[in-house]
C-alpha cells in the first residue's frame, strides 16, 4: 500500500521542464539541484541513511558481524579477509526470523515519506508506516519516500542487541538518468558536498523518480569508514585508493585490515532449498483430504506448503488487517496456522521474536514454524480449543467447538494461569500491550495461555517506560494509552483486570458497554458489581487510573482471590495466633477491632446460631462482639473438628471447603477485611503469603 501511494503521488507530479536532481548523503541530507548544477534547496531528514551499532562483544562473535556498504551490499570479516555476501541487506531483512546458538537474527523494514514544495523545499506533509498522509494541498509538490532496512542480532537470554546494521534508500522507479560529463557545474557541486554521497536521484520531465549509484566496477579492497558514535560502513575501493578515516576491527583506530573481496557461497543454503523441491517432485501433491467424523464425512481443501499444511475450509478465527487463523498440520501434529498479509510482516516478525524467547512457559502459547509466499506470512502455533472469551460466554462459536461455560473455580484457575503467563513475560521485560479475553487461549487440558504477541514490546535493560505509539484494542486500554502518555508494564495489569471482571461476570466489563468504555476509562467511571469481595479487592487495584499504584503482576497471581479454602483457613489461624501473641489490649488488637467493626452489625453468636454456640460454652468464655474472639473460635474448631458432634459437623460442612464456606457465608467481609488491614498496615504476616 505504501509503495502504491508513493507511486501514485509520483505519477501525478506536474513538474517544470527543467529536471530536478536529488543528491542523498550519508548523514541524511537530501540536496536538490537542477540538471545544470544550480542549487535549489536541502531537506535534512535528521537520520543517517547508513548507521550501525556494535556492542563490545560483537567482533568476538562467530559468525562475524556484518557491515553494510553505501549501496546496501553486505560484507563480513572472516579469517583476515573481507567477504562480500551474495545477499544484500534487503535480502537479509526479508528472511524469516531465525534462532541459532542462542542468537536471534531478525530484520525490520520501516517507511517514511516527505511531501515538499518543489520550488522552496518546504515540508508540507509527512507520512510514517501506518500513519496517513498529512499534506497541504498545492499544485506544485514532490514526494520523497525513504525505506529503512535494519538487520539485528540479539542475545536470546537478555534480548540485548549484539549488533545491528541499518540502510536507507530513497524510494525510486529505478529509471537511470544521464547527466553529461561536460556539465562541469553539476559535478563540481558533487565534489564539494560535505559527506559521503549514497546516490543520485532525479525527477525527469515525465515525473518519474530515477536513480543512479556510483560504485567502482573493479575493486580489489574494502575499507571501513568510521563516522563516529560507534557507527561504521564498508566501502568498495579501487586498489590505488589510499582511503581516509579507516576503521579497523581492532582497538587501533587508524589501522586498516586489508583483504581480498570474495563471493561467499553458502552451499548449505542451496542444499536446504533443493530438499523441498526434490521432495515435491517425489511426492504427489495433495489437494483434497477427507476428514471423517461420527456424524458425517467432510471434504476439506488443503493448501500444502513446505512444512505447514493449511486447511483453508477450517477457520478458527479472524483478526485485524486481514489476518485469519486456520486449522493445520505441522510435523504430524495439529496446529493453528495464523495467515497474515505480507504487509504485516513487521508485526509477524515482532510476534515471533518475542515468542522465541517466551514460549518455554506453559502459560504462553508455543510457536512452531514460520513460512511465507508472495502474498502471505504463515505462523504455526500449538492448537487450542478456544479462547477465554469462548469458555465464559454463550456463543455459537463455543457451541460448535463443544465448549462449556466454566464454573467460578474453573474460571479462577484459568485467570491464575493467565497471570502466571504474564508474569513470565514481564520477567523477560516484555510488555504484551493487547491483553484481552480473546488473546488468552485454552488448550485441551484446560490450561490458559497468553497469545497474540504482535503488539508486544521488549524493553531494554533498566528501562521501565516506553513511548506513546498506539497499540492494543479499544475498550481494554488504560487511561495513559488513550491520553497518549508514556506507559509501563502497568498497561498489561489494567487490561488483565478488565479481563478478570469479564470472565467472572460472563462477559461484563467494569467500564460498561463497548461504545462507552473508552470515555468511561478516561473519566474513571466503573462498576464492579456481581463479583466476590476478594475479586473486587484485586480488580479495583488493577484498574486504578494512576498506573504507578497498580500492583505488580507477581502480586496479582499471589492474591488471596486465588487461594484455596485451606490456605484461607491457615491465614485466619495465623491472624488469630498473632493477636494472641501480642496480648490483650495490644495496639494491633485495638486497630484491628476498629478496622473490622463495620463488618458485624450484631454480635457474632446470633449469626452462628444456638446449636453452634451451645458447643462453645464448655471450653472458654468469649466476647461475642470481638473479632479477636471470633477468630479464636474458628481456630479452635479447625483444630478440634474431629471432636465435634456429628450433627455439628454436618452443619458446618467438611474440611476445608465446607468449613470455610460456613463462616464465609455468615461473615462475608471478615476474611477480605483482615487481609486488607494487614496489607495496608504492612504487617509482616502478609509477606508469608505474598512474596514480591
UniProtKB/TrEMBL annotation:
Q: What class of enzyme is it?
A: transferase
The domain of life is Eukaryota
Range of residues in the leader sequence: 1-16
GO CC terms, sorted: IRE1-TRAF2-ASK1 complex
Q: Which biological process terms from the Gene Ontology are attached to this UniProt entry?
A: IRE1-mediated unfolded protein response; mRNA processing
What keywords are assigned to this protein? ATP-binding, Kinase, Membrane, Nucleotide-binding, Serine/threonine-protein kinase, Signal, Transferase, Transmembrane, Transmembrane helix
Q: Which GO terms describe its molecular function?
A: ATP binding; protein serine/threonine kinase activity; RNA endonuclease activity; unfolded protein binding
What's this protein's name?
non-specific serine/threonine protein kinase
Native organism: Stentor coeruleus
Amino acid at each position: 500500500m505504501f509503495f502504491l501511494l508513493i507511486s501514485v503521488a509520483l505519477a501525478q507530479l506536474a513538474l517544470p521542464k527543467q529536471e530536478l536532481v536529488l543528491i542523498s548523503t550519508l548523514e541524511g541530507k537530501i540536496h536538490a539541484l537542477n540538471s545544470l548544477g544550480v542549487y535549489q534547496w536541502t531537506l535534512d531528514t535528521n537520520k543517517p541513511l547508513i548507521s550501525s551499532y556494535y556492542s563490545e562483544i560483537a567482533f568476538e562473535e562467530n559468525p562475524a558481524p556484518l557491515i553494510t556498504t553505501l549501496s546496501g551490499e553486505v560484507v563480513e570479516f572472516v579469517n583476515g579477509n573481507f567477504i562480500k555476501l551474495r545477499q544484500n541487506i534487503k535480502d537479509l531483512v526479508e528472511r524469516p526470523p531465525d534462532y541459532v546458538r542462542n542468537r536471534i537474527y531478525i530484520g525490520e523494514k520501516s517507511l517514511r515519506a516527505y511531501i515538499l514544495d518543489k520550488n522552496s523545499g518546504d515540508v508540507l506533509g509527512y507520512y510514517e508506516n501506518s500513519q496517513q498522509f498529512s499534506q497541504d494541498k498545492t499544485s506544485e509538490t514532490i514526494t520523497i519516500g525513504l525505506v529503512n532496512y535494519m538487520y539485528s542480532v540479539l542475545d536470546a537470554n537478555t534480548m540485548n542487541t549484539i549488533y545491528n546494521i541499518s540502510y536507507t534508500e530513497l524510494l525510486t522507479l529505478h529509471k537511470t538518468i544521464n547527466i553529461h560529463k561536460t556539465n562541469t557545474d553539476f559535478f563540481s557541486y558533487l565534489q564539494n558536498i560535505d559527506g559521503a554521497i549514497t546516490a543520485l536521484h532525479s525527477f525527469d520531465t515525465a515525473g518519474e523518480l530515477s536513480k543512479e549509484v556510483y560504485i567502482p566496477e573493479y575493486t580489489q579492497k574494502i575499507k571501513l569508514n568510521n563516522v563516529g558514535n560507534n557507527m561504521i560502513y564498508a566501502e568498495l575501493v579501487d586498489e590505488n585508493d589510499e582511503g581516509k578515516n579507516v576503521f579497523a576491527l581492532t582497538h587501533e583506530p587508524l589501522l586498516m585490515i586489508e583483504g581480498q573481496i570474495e563471493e561467499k557461497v553458502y552451499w548449505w543454503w542451496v542444499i536446504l532449498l533443493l530438499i523441498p523441491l526434490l521432495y515435491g517432485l517425489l511426492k504427489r501433491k495433495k489437494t483434497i483430504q477427507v476428514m471423517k467424523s461420527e456424524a458425517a464425512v467432510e471434504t476439506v481443501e488443503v493448501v500444502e506448503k513446505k512444512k505447514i499444511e493449511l486447511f483453508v475450509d477450517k477457520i478458527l478465527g479472524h483478526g485485524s488487517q486481514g489476518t485469519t487463523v486456520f486449522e493445520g498440520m505441522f510435523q504430524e501434529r495439529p496446529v493453528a496456522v495464523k495467515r497474515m498479509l505480507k504487509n504485516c510482516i513487521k508485526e509477524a516478525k515482532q510476534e515471533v521474536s518475542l515468542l522465541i524467547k517466551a514460549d518455554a512457559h506453559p502459560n504462553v502459547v508455543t510457536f512452531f514454524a514460520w513460512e511465507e509466499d508472495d502474498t502471505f506470512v504463515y505462523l504455526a502455533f500449538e492448537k487450542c480449543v478456544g479462547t477465554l472469551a469462548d469458555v465464559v460466554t454463550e456463543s455459537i462459536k463455543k457451541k460448535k467447538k463443544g465448549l462449556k461455560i466454566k464454573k467460578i473455580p474453573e474460571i479462577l484457575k484459568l485467570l491464575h494461569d493467565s497471570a502466571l503467563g504474564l508474569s513470565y513475560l514481564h520477567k523477560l521485560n516484555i510488555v504484551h500491550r493487547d491483553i484481552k479475553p480473546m488473546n488468552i487461549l485454552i488448550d485441551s487440558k484446560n490450561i490458559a495461555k497468553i497469545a497474540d504477541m504482535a503488539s508486544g514490546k521488549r524493553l531494554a535493560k533498566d528501562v521501565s517506560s516506553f513511548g506513546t505509539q498506539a497499540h492494543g484494542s479499544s475498550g481494554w486500554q488504560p487511561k495513559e494509552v488513550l491520553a497518549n502518555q508514556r506507559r509501563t508494564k502497568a498497561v498489561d495489569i489494567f487490561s488483565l483486570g478488565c479481563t478478570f471482571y469479564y470472565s467472572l461476570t460472563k462477559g461484563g466489563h467494569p467500564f460498561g458497554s463497548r461504545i462507552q468504555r473508552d470515555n468511561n476509562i478516561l473519566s474513571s467511571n466503573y462498576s464492579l458489581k456481581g463479583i466476590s469481595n476478594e475479586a473486587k479487592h484485586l480488580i479495583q487495584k488493577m484498574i486504578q487510573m494512576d498506573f504507578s499504584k497498580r500492583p505488580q503482576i507477581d502480586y496479582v497471581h499471589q492474591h488471596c482471590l486465588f487461594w484455596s479454602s485451606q490456605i484461607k483457613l491457615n491465614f485466619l489461624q495465623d491472624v488469630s495466633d498473632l493477636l494472641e501473641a501480642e496480648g490483650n489490649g495490644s495496639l494491633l488488637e485495638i486497630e484491628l477491632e476498629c478496622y473490622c467493626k463495620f463488618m458485624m452489625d450484631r454480635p457474632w453468636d446470633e449469626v452462628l446460631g444456638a446449636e453452634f454456640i451451645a458447643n462453645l460454652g464448655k471450653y472458654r468464655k468469649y466476647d461475642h462482639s470481638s473479632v479477636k474472639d471470633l477468630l479464636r473460635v474458628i481456630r479452635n474448631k479447625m483444630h478440634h473438628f474431629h471432636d465435634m458432634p456429628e450433627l455439628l459437623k454436618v452443619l458446618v460442612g467438611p474440611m476445608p471447603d465446607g468449613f470455610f464456606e460456613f463462616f464465609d457465608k455468615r461473615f462475608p467481609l471478615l476474611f477480605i477485611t483482615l487481609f486488607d488491614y494487614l496489607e495496608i498496615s504492612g504487617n509482616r504476616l502478609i509477606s508469608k503469603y505474598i512474596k514480591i
